[in-house]
Amino acid sequence: RWGPDKFPKETPLVFYRGGKPIEPPLGIFDGLKVVLKSMSSYIEREVPSTTMKLWRTQSPRHFDGGEWDHNGSCLSKRLLEEHELDSWFDPRFGGVNKEARLVNSVIEEALVGTDIQLLNLTYMSEFRADAHPAIWLGKKDAVAVWGQDCMHWCLPGVPDTWVDILAARILHYFKQGEG
Predict the structure, then answer these.
(1) Contact in structure between 73 and 148 (CB atoms under 8 Å)
(2) Are 8 and 15 a contacting pair, CB within 8 Å?
(3) Helix, strand, or coil here: 64?
(4) How much is the pLDDT for 28?
(5) Which of 7, 28, 76, 125 has its CA 20 to 30 A from that of 172?
(6) Domain spans of the chain?
(7) Distance CA 86, CA 97 (A)
(8) Around Cβ 25, how many Cβ atoms within 10 Å?
(9) Residues near 25 by Cβ (< 8 Å), separated by ≥ 6?
(10) Nearest 10 degrees: Cα torsion 14, 17, 20, 22
(11) This prediction's pTM
């Protein structure tokens, strides 16, 4: 997970280019752009063009009412409706769940001009607010005892579908090569 809350605000991160620190220090998302561009350039340069290259987009979180440490909750037993998605995830609305879409836009930008294919699993996963372990921990007071887990997935469906999509992309890639 790449987000501003994961790094100390008091000490700026140091990003390097060509073995030298970038001055002045970059903000978190500008730093991410440098990192992703460097990674995609390395992959393009070092991995043969005949190799299938995929880059998976971010997995969305489903906090409601604030971040995990500020009264946020992902206690949901229902799928989100399509008309709800932007209010939960669109960065223009500044919600706590905007991170995946922000990072995905940086990933997409880094992949422009490469032969790395984007495997976008974020949008379909945004619907599944019900599929996190937060309410499925098996005990009455599980959330009070263990807290919430709004990042990982526990119900059959979401990760299984990701694997199905990946398998289909791989099969499609190899069938194209046969022609």
Answers:
(1) yes
(2) no
(3) strand
(4) 84
(5) 125
(6) 51-178
(7) 10
(8) 13
(9) 12, 13, 14, 15
(10) -50
(11) 0.80
